[in-house]
Amino acid sequence: MTGHPPYPLKPVRISILPYQPVSCCLNLYRCLHGLISGKMRGSWTQTKKDLSIYDTNRAYTIKNNSWDGLNGATYPTKIRGVLINPSSTRSFEIGTALHFLKNRLNLDIAYYQKLFYNLTTDAQISDASGFQSTLINIDEEHTRKGVEISLNANIYKDKKTGIGTQQSTGH
Question: What is d(CA 77, CA 43) in angstroms, rounded to the nearest whole number?
Fold first, then answer.
């Protein structure tokens, strides 16, 4: 079982908040003199992506040559909300890798699922507010899930050369 600290070890410039990944792997024993072996694995993680500084702070827009060769500035048309939650994802994967015939034939099967939530969007607001839109969280979730299957075969193998093939598919 492995894990990572829920904080960066060095200061970073990207706006991704701490995450809590967990993964584990269980090696299955070899049987029939190495003809069959394998392992099972699984992992889980949660990440959060904070907003850009310009999504929460007001900033003027500078325009060059807007007044007969003079520069100008405009006030933003988007009101900034301070109660916005960061966009988040939660994902997990489970799978198994099986090796047959002294590692000449390998089968890897995995199932994964990733949930996106706390998504943000611009919402139109009344012109009476002095602005055109505001950034809000939407009560909507998106899920991506699927299965990945990979089959590898070593057709010919000696100490110096080898010929093999691989077929992978995912849905």
Answer: 43
The pLDDT value given to residue 102: 79
Determine the distance from the C-alpha atom of residue 45 to the mean position of all C-alpha atoms in its chain, rounded to a whole number.
Answer: 9
pTM: 0.66
Tokens matching residue 123: 């919402």
CB contact at 8 A, 48 and 17 = yes
Residue 24 has a pLDDT of 72
**Residues 157, 67: Cα–Cα separation, whole Å:** 75
Q: Look at residue 7 in the predicted model and tell me its pLDDT.
A: 42
| Low-confidence stretches of the chain (pLDDT beneath 50) | 1-16
Inter-residue contact 136 to 81 (CB < 8 Å):
yes
